[in-house]
Amino acid sequence: MVNKGDIVYGIITNIIGYGAFVNVGEYNGLIHISEFSDNFVKDIKDFVEVGDKVKLKVVDVDDENKRLKLSYKMINKIRGVKGDVPKFTIGFKSLRDMLPQFIKKQIDQIKES
Fold this sequence. Notes:
The chain has one helix spanning about 95-110, and strands at about 5-15, 20-25, 25-30, 55-60, 65-70. It is an alpha+beta fold. The longest helix is centred in the last third of the chain and has 18 residues, at about 95-110.
């Protein structure tokens, strides 16, 4: 018997536009496309392929029909690396400050031609 919140292993049996079907023992499950990632999912095949054995979390159980709603992202989160953001100083000056230097450079180039 499978309960809501359980961690289960299943085999991907089919992939369609809105999700992937999974066989978990005597249960058939669905991982909806929204349960693959918190970010936009362009293609489910970026995460799983038919025949893959995957670790999943049970979101909901329908014991009468032997169906499961499953989540891939709750178990397989891709975590970012924490670190310090480099500190940069902006390397340009305002147009007003740089305009005389720019004009001089343009005049010098014209004189050289």
